[in-house]
Amino acid sequence: MRGRKRSLKGYPPCDRCGSSADVVAYGKRVNKHGSKQTYFCRSCAHKFTPDDGFKGRRFPSEVIRATINLTQKGLTLKQVTKHIKNEFGIGVSESTVLDWINAYTTGKE
Ligand SMILES: [Zn+2]
Question: What angle do CA 40, 53, 102 make, to 5 degrees?
Fold first, then answer.
């Protein structure tokens, strides 16, 4: 098919089928933290938002990274949530911090 774009550089692979050959930019998803590019995979008709590996999280990835860094420094959950509140002005619950730890630090040492 003439003019069909394949293997576009800079487009992330589909988070369902893993193929990037038929991924197209779909539009932007806007929330209170800003906008995220949304993509559509034509291979499996799946719409997704890569979100820097933090897909589906309600918080900016920098907050999640900072949170994980703090926990890895040995701060308690209470200290971490307080620090995030001071630093970013965002209230994070201790259970959310635990979720992030479980989701992003497994197997890392
Ligand atoms: Zn797909």
Answer: 135
